[in-house]
Amino acid sequence: MTIRQAFTAATLGLALPLVAQAEELTEVSLALDWTLNTNHVGLIVAREKGFYEEAGLSVDILPYSDSSSTALLAAGAADFAYMTSLGFMSARAGGADIVALWATMQHEAGRLVYNSNNDAIARPADLEGKTYAGFGSAWEEALISTMIEADGGTADYDTVTLGTGAYEALASGAVDFTLEVATWEGVNSDLLGREQSHFTYADYGVPDQQTGYIGTRSEVLEAHPELVRAMMQATQQGYTWAADHPQEAAEILIGAGDFQNPELVRGSMEVIVDGDYLRDGDTPVGQIDPDRFATMARFLFDSGVLKGQGGAALEWPGDVSDWISQDWMAE
């Protein structure tokens, strides 16, 4: 039974098969935001260890494509989506009727990175007049400008858009700085022996945010709360198991993907667990902090990052509490 068939069943007053049965599982799809990586480890663990099947679900994890996972979700081409925080907030602010159910990383894993032997850089204010290798988003400009200005500098720097080529450009000294994810590109740089230093966003005026949202459409949440509960509790089981067994989880992920360097996956899982990214103290895996969510949303609105269809910056709506729902966590 697909989720669309489930909608029909609900309309007819039929019970949904949310407990695994021998003859039939409810089929749902989840779109990924990028190629398979350790952010997705709990999804793979939940599938490979049978947590989804135990919940009565057959979960089709859709590979990354040219269409963003957020767009696929909003268009109804996927039932759930793993989304970047910026991707989700941009779509929701623009009118997409989608809801965040989950946050994978309890802290921002991104950071601003530069070569350690660059004596001209010791603080964010030193980035004034330097060359940044970027990825083409308004978020980058807001983030970097905030950091430089919070350190007393002027946000006047050059930008070249290089995409993933930014990391080679930085290593060769062709540019002065870029942004990376500590749990992936940062691990890769260490494996390559690159001596690089970094600035943490939250130390210079940018709110520390949770990242890696999993969401669905409001219509799915409203019509099938038990299906959402089954999906998300099994997903939580997968990520919790990965947090408790990081190296075993790494091997499961390696077996499910096509990784040129398995050591990158193993090293990434080590950094994720050691850095309290999946689980911070007593905070349950996947829990969204409403205050931190609202703080980052306000930052993106005030910085002009969130724009309407005509390209104009959107105004702060005053409340974003209905952008998230974690009722599925309740017993």
UniProtKB/TrEMBL annotation:
InterPro entries: NMT1/THI5 (IPR027939), SsuA/THI5 (IPR015168). Pathway: Cofactor biosynthesis; thiamine diphosphate biosynthesis. GO terms for biological process: thiamine biosynthetic process. Responsible for the formation of the pyrimidine heterocycle in the thiamine biosynthesis pathway. Catalyzes the formation of hydroxymethylpyrimidine phosphate (HMP-P) from histidine and pyridoxal phosphate (PLP). The protein uses PLP and the active site histidine to form HMP-P, generating an inactive enzyme. The enzyme can only undergo a single turnover, which suggests it is a suicide enzyme. It comes from the Bacteria. The lineage of its organism: Bacteria, Pseudomonadati, Pseudomonadota, Alphaproteobacteria, Rhodobacterales. It catalyses: N(6)-(pyridoxal phosphate)-L-lysyl-[4-amino-5-hydroxymethyl-2-methylpyrimidine phosphate synthase] + L-histidyl-[4-amino-5-hydroxymethyl-2-methylpyrimidine phosphate synthase] + 2 Fe(3+) + 4 H2O = L-lysyl-[4-amino-5-hydroxymethyl-2-methylpyrimidine phosphate synthase] + (2S)-2-amino-5-hydroxy-4-oxopentanoyl-[4-amino-5-hydroxymethyl-2-methylpyrimidine phosphate synthase] + 4-amino-2-methyl-5-(phosphooxymethyl)pyrimidine + 3-oxopropanoate + 2 Fe(2+) + 2 H(+). Belongs to the NMT1/THI5 family. One of its GO terms (molecular function) is transferase activity. The keyword Signal applies. SUPFAM superfamilies: Periplasmic binding protein-like II (SSF53850). Keywords: Iron, Metal-binding, Pyridoxal phosphate, Signal, Thiamine biosynthesis, Transferase. Homodimer. Residues 37-249 form the SsuA/THI5-like domain. This is Thiamine pyrimidine synthase. The keyword Transferase applies. Residues 1-22 form the signal peptide.
